[in-house]
Design goal:
Number of helices: 1
Shape: globular
Distance between the termini: 21 Å
Structural class: mainly beta
Strand content: over 45%
Order of helices and strands: HEEEEEE
Largest sheet: 3 strands, antiparallel
Strand order of the largest sheet: 2-1-6
Amino acid sequence: MWREISAAISANNLVTIHVVGGESFTIERAGLNTDTQMITARDQAGRVYIADPHQITFIEVTHQ
């Protein structure tokens, strides 16, 4: 899942991540912590999210 998110963001797209439980968040930047394998993401308002890649159900890509 990390590769898909990284590729979409690299192409200047907005990415909406949907996680188990129905929550979602739209991000503009993300990184992968290689020690914990958790995704750290930041939205346009500067809020930071931590996501377990195994809890992501799907992503939506919005082309800008």
